[in-house]
User: What shape does this take?
Amino acid sequence: MTTQPGKLEAKKSRNLYKVGLLVTVGYFALLILTIAALSHLGWFEWKKISLNEVGDFLAGAFSPVAFFWLILGFLQQGHELQLQVAEMANSVSQQKEMVDVSRAVLEHERTQAEHRQLTEMKRLQPNLHIRIASKSGLSLDAGKLGPENRPYKYSLTTKNAGARVLDVEFELLPVPQTMHNTQYSLIESGAEIQLEFTCIGRDAPLPSDLIVRCKNDIGHLYLLTYHVVRRGHFDLKAMELLSYDPQDLDRTADRGNQNAQNSPM
Assistant: This one.
């Protein structure tokens, strides 16, 4: 696309050519009229002029025109150079715009990639809902013991409200007297599991903190810390990502997109 200065230089070049033609035609028209007038007055006769004089006359007649077109040629060349400079400036401007567009596209793609990674990370991060409930059914000899030495059984119910988690390990603090099934290789999404633990004595304090170590579906290791904020319910206090590889998220997101494209409508 030609810029405004380039169009102006092209217009000047065309106008210069038109001026040259008009001046040339006017010059020869004036020369012919002058020769005709001199011949009519008897001051000029072609028959009395030798061939050498005719050659000198024609050379003198065409010399101003040749010199005039030489000057026009220099002017025309100057306009063409200015036109080339304008085109080069326009090309540089277009290249700069293309670079800006490419930079904007790359920035948009980078932002989209970061958004996909964050979305995939949120989708895969653990989301465990945990609560404690008393469990009936003491041992047969529990009735022979006093309230201070009697074992009281409790259940720790964990519901997975997020994506599935692997290599799950539970740790209650303070540590109860006994605790069973503290490790699970897999907890599917939507699944609910129960851990049983025992505390000795009716007034024994229940665990107030819970530490959960687990991995998400692509092997990222998490450390989750829960704290009792109301009776029987644990709320998530902190979630720490111990290991993380963004390429795993990209590969998982790509697999998800391919599965969505291949799935029947």
